[in-house]
Amino acid sequence: MYRRCLRLFAMAVVATLSTASPAAPSVDVAIGYIQWRPDQGPVLSNVIPEPHDAGLRGAELAIDDNSTTGKFLGQTYSLQREVAESGEAAIAAFDAMRQNGIRLFVVNAPAGTLKTMTAKAGEDTLIFNAGASDDALRTGQCPVNLMHTMPSYSMLTDALGQWLNQRRWDEVFLITGPTKADKGWADAFRRSARRFGLEIVADKPWTFDADLRRTASKELPLFTQAGDYDAVVVADVRGDFGEYVPFNTWLPRPVVGTQGMSPVTWHRVVESWGAAQLQNRFRELAGRDMNGEDYAAWAAIRAIGTAVTDLNSANPMDIRTFLFSDDFQLAAFKGRKLTFRDWNGQLRQPIPLTHPRGLVARAPFEGFLHPNTDMDTLGFDRPESKCRIND
């Protein structure tokens, strides 16, 4: 009797499957990841060296995350990687991947290399910027096939400007390093200072080439002499001198900016909203902590995965349209659902303010109002940008 019932049940299952609608076609999602970071040369402080695989490991984790969902939906994700040793090699890798049919890219490279790629790509290719923070890419030089998951300098400095305004630390001493990145960060902060009512009482370029490991206690107090200020803001992106500024200023004041308390894309101390689980999975994969470049690459590939799950398509233009639609929201462990700005392709996202061993706050802050979303109080808003990539 039992065997007969089992046989009848099996026949019913077969009949049901045979009359069901056919399964959705499988989707292969091939993503190219290209990384090139110029050699920055030696820096004085190597206490926390930058990992050589920053960005790549975040992309690999996102492929794993996408595949977890994709395997139930007939969606297969693959990542073709290239960590180049020059800008020319990065562009050659981009060309080779396109010839092999890849049309979705995550790029961790300087703005100049990124612009070359977008110019060569055409409208059938979608590129995610996971490395360049240059404001020009969001304000006047905006290719329609370029999205940004890396925050701009202005988003970072607006987060810091809001915090300083909130604390009523209105007078600041700004020190700017010699590199192009330092100047880009400092220019963004000067804009933020005007935006949030801060006064830069001293604005000095860093011109010393002395070994601060021996002379910081003598050089920096003299360099930071001024009548009064509430905080010292450092723009030293690669770490030439900034690590030696805290506790060596003329006045006993906090240090913020690229050193001290810093606005960042991501940091190991971010643990709320499920982030601890992401951090643990990343450490298991990479054997180190997740940084901002890792997070930007991870967010780019997860955005692609979110679109493919909804569309069941890997067509780049369909994905682009979906990412700008009201149906897209990226769950990204920052306490808010993230969306893309439709005028310049920038991913809206909260900015953590951290020191090396703790989270201080998260911008945007209550009280900084916006007619649409307070997330657009960070970075260049629509009226401030010339970009209209969806018009």
Topology overview:
Blueprint: H1 2-19, E1 27-35, H2 56-73, E2 75-83, H3 87-99, E3 104-108, H4 111-121, E4 126-129, H5 136-139, E5 146-148, H6 153-166, E6 171-176, H7 180-195, E7 199-205, H8 212-223, E8 231-235, E9 255-257, E10 262-263, H9 275-286, H10 292-311, H11 316-323, E11 330-331, E12 337-338, E13 351-355, E14 358-363
Parallel strand pairs: 1-2, 1-3, 3-4, 4-5, 6-7, 6-8, 8-9
Antiparallel strand pairs: 10-13, 11-12, 13-14
Helix pairs in contact: 2-10, 3-4, 6-7, 10-11
Explain what you see.
- By secondary structure, the protein is an alpha/beta fold.
- It contains eleven helices and 14 strands.
- It has two domains: 27-151 and 267-349, 3-Layer(aba) Sandwich (Rossmann fold), CATH 3.40.50.2300; 155-263, Response regulator (Rossmann fold).
- It is 37% helix and 17% strand.
- It has a five-stranded parallel sheet with strand order 2-1-3-4-5, sandwiched between helices. The protein has a four-stranded parallel sheet with strand order 7-6-8-9, with helices on one face.
- Helix 2 (56-73) packs parallel to helix 10 (292-311), helix 6 crosses helix 7 and helix 10 (292-311) crosses helix 11 (316-323).
- It is globular.
- The relative contact order is 0.15.
